[in-house]
Amino acid sequence: MTSQLEAMRDRLGGRRLARAGSPHVLAVLSGKGGSGVSLVSVLLAIRSARAGRRTLLVDADPWLDMQRVWLGLPKAPSAAERPEGNDDIEARVATAHQGLEVLCLGTGEARGRDHRAVVRRIPAVFRDRDAVVVDAGSRLESVERCADLDVGSILVVSGCDAVGLASTHALMKALRSRTEIQPAILFNQVDDAAARAARTVLTTGAERFLGATPTVLGSLPPDPAISDGLARGATLLECLVSSHLPDRVEEIMPSLPPWAEA
Asked: pTM, whole model, 2 decimals?
């Protein structure tokens, strides 16, 4: 992993993440797949839109395309799948719900394209929105996407198991070498007791090896209403009718700049 980080540092040319102007851009990412980045991203975006803010959800993970499926959107050309000579990213934005819009980067089969060039054009559509939530994924490229999208704040979604905590620590270290933004941590799919224990482990390690105390916003518990509903083919909006997670997400939103500054 060290060699990958060094290679990315060379590609970024020492570039540091910059605070976006208006609106504020929040990136959600993780050091380990399956941590719940996509779910947390869409929950934040939905709650933001329902609060009356025009919100753009950017699915910047080119491998999954989960946001389109969960929100019941039809398959449509992505930001990376444009007619030759057509650079109109705005035309690729789809309306998912009142006040909520979605822009998908693309899927893995289009991986041969220059995705970084595509990503760098996306901020052009931010200026007409009140808040932007970026699902940056859970690969090392997530850090690179944050730089290209000029994010203003970062939320790291973490598990509480040993692998999840180690991955989160490694991601915090990678971010520290590239940005002055201090990421916030959210534990996902765990109860409060497990989250408290994980917080102690992560904080102790970060203070000892990174010289920083991470900001932990809390935790989201498992929710069968969502997992069972999605397994039956329901949309996420349908699943949320009987879910308690939106209320838990709303509790942490005032600690995140897109909504704390509103």
From this structure: 0.87
